[in-house]
């Protein structure tokens, strides 16, 4: 895997600052894309510094000091020398013990020549350096820099033993993973380098430079037609960037992706999730705790005159939790309601088609299980209280968004219920279910929620999702498991492709 040789990265200030009017009063700002670059480098596990030419304006100097301080980067002056700039002595010292990269957008042949004489790799953004200075690798746009750096590090440090993982996910999720150390650019202990794929650049050329792609495809759904759920991805509109990735994968079936889109589509539909969970009864044996799916019923409208009959046939009774059939990827997928009597369906605002599901009294505790490769973790979280404590006096259904306003039991309500702890879960049984689901779904990283029904002790899996944050699992445990899972999945899929 990685050799352990440190990587030093120096960004010239010209790469980051917008060209502005000359003078002390000139406004100073970052170039478009510079903030994203700095944010990602902050959690890269690289030693990063910003260099500047002595004599720059007070405004520019102060601005750079603020930038470096906020991202915990170094700050290195370049020294004037015969019209050119010479590298700081520390930079020359680094070259003896580290793999060093200098990135710039200005032509300074003297500086570049001296750095190259000391084994620095130089990358320029723009066209000037590539024309005038031999030995300089040129890229056209700032957004290309991270992928270029990742491929250079792979070549210099680990060769074929290092994998470059291109990833696609929304910014908030990316920042969460990166902040926890899951997305290093310096190779992880498993020899993994993580780099974001940019939708601002042609994706086909980026995909040819990475070994595999990690994605959260649901982050890129623009629109979804619930009437097509059986035939997903028919009826799903993705962002232009994700659509391009999907086409690339169709044209390159041997390309490794974590995980295949077809394995994830069933998790976009709560009815398909229900059909998957029903298969858990295959694990049941006499005398063991019962592990099952919740009883449920699909409805296309709330005004069916025979709804009472259909509920009885599905083994359902009030209260019921009402969920949109579309499980994720659209804004109202998490708009739900708790309904206590049939009259409350008359003005219900939950999107249709919907899934009616039994509400399970579970002592205000939910158990979050995470499958990361071959490892299974779980955590306990406060949840909704028993139904008797939730019923509104108004006779109206209780509506909520499960991502934002989930009704959670108060301390007083918890005292009124049979509060559970992690010992109330049969972890051996649920881990058996996790392995069963992993095999059935063909996924590398997924999560599911378990509640323990009061009275019966039934273990009921009430939700199933792809690539959760697993934030309840300590980073020191979760992140290495995450890296192991990606490496193992890649090697397994490559092995199958070559046989």
TrEMBL record:
Q: One MF term from GO for this chain?
A: inositol-3,4,5,6-tetrakisphosphate 1-kinase activity
One short Pfam family name for this protein? Answer: Ins134_P3_kin
Q: Could you name the domain of life of the organism this protein comes from? A: Eukaryota
- Residue ranges of the Inositol 1,3,4-trisphosphate 5/6-kinase ATP-grasp domain? 294-475
Top-level EC class: transferase
Q: Which InterPro entries match?
A: Inositol_tetrakis-P_1-kinase, InsP(3)kin_ATP-grasp
Sorted UniProt keywords = ATP-binding, Kinase, Magnesium, Metal-binding, Nucleotide-binding, Transferase
Question: What EC numbers are recorded for this enzyme?
Answer: 2.7.1.159
Keyword match DNA-binding: no
Q: Which reaction does it catalyse?
A: 1D-myo-inositol 1,3,4-trisphosphate + ATP = 1D-myo-inositol 1,3,4,5-tetrakisphosphate + ADP + H(+); 1D-myo-inositol 3,4,5,6-tetrakisphosphate + ATP = 1D-myo-inositol 1,3,4,5,6-pentakisphosphate + ADP + H(+); 1D-myo-inositol 1,3,4-trisphosphate + ATP = 1D-myo-inositol 1,3,4,6-tetrakisphosphate + ADP + H(+)
User: What are the required cofactors?
Assistant: Mg(2+)
Q: Does the keyword Nucleotide-binding apply?
A: yes
The family assignment reads: Belongs to the ITPK1 family.
Tell me, what does this protein do in biology? Kinase that can phosphorylate various inositol polyphosphate such as Ins(3,4,5,6)P4 or Ins(1,3,4)P3 and participates in phytic acid biosynthesis in developing seeds. Phytic acid is the primary storage form of phosphorus in cereal grains and other plant seeds.
Question: What subunit structure does UniProt give?
Answer: Monomer.
For this entry, the protein name equals Inositol-tetrakisphosphate 1-kinase 6
Taxonomic placement: Eukaryota, Viridiplantae, Streptophyta, Embryophyta, Tracheophyta
């Amino acid at each position: 895997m990685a050799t352990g040789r440190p990587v030093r990265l120096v960004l010239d200030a010209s790469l980051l600052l917008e060209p502005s009017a000359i003078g002390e009063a000139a406004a100073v700002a970052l170039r478009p894309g510079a903030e994203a670059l700095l944010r990602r480098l902050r959690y890269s596990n690289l030693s990063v510094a910003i260099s500047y030419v002595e004599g720059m304006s007070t405004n520019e100097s102060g601005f750079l000091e603020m930038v470096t301080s906020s991202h915990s980067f170094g700050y290195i002056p370049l020294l004037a020398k015969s019209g050119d700039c010479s590298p700081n002595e520390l930079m020359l010292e680094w070259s003896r013990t580290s793999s060093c990269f200098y990135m710039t957008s200005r032509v300074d042949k003297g500086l570049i020549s001296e750095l190259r004489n000391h084994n620095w790799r130089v990358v320029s953004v723009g066209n000037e350096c590539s024309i005038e200075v031999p030995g300089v690798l040129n890229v056209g746009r700032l957004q290309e820099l991270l992928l270029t750096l990742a491929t250079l590090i792979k070549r210099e440090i680990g060769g074929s033993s290092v994998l470059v993982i291109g990833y696609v996910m929304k910014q908030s999720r990316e920042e969460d993973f990166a902040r926890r150390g899951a997305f290093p650019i310096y190779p992880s202990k498993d020899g993994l380098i993580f780099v974001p794929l940019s939708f601002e650049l042609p994706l086909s050329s980026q995909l040819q430079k990475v070994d595999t792609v990690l994605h959260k495809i649901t982050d890129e759904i623009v629109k979804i037609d619930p009437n097509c759920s059986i035939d997903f991805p028919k009826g799903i509109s993705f962002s232009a960037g994700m659509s391009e990735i999907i086409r690339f994968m169709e044209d390159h079936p041997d390309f490794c992706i974590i995980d295949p889109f077809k394995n994830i589509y069933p998790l976009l539909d709560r009815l398909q999730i229900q059909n998957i969970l029903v298969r858990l009864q295959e694990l049941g044996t006499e005398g063991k705790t019962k592990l099952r799916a919740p009883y449920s019923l699909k409805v296309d409208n709330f005004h069916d005159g025979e709804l009472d009959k259909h509920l009885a046939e599905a083994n359902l009774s009030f209260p019921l939790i009402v969920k949109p059939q579309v499980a994720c990827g659209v804004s109202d997928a998490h708009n739900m309601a708790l309904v206590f009597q049939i009259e409350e369906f008359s003005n219900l605002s939950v999107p249709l088609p919907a899934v009616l599901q039994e509400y399970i009294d579970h002592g205000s505790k939910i158990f979050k299980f995470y499958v990361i490769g071959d490892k299974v973790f779980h955590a306990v979280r406060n949840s909704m209280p028993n139904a008797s404590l939730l019923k509104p006096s108004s006779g109206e259904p209780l509506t909520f968004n499960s991502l934002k306003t989930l009704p959670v039991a108060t301390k007083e309500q918890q005292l009124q219920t049979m509060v559970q702890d992690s010992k109330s879960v049969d972890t051996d049984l649920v881990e058996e279910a996790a392995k069963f689901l992993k095999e059935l779904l063909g996924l590398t990283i997924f999560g599911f929620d378990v509640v323990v029904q009061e009275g019966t002790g039934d273990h009921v899996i009430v939700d199933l999702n792809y690539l959760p944050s697993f934030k309840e699992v300590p980073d020191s445990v979760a992140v290495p498991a995450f890296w192991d899972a990606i490496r193992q999945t890649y090697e397994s899929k490559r092995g199958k492709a070559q046989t």
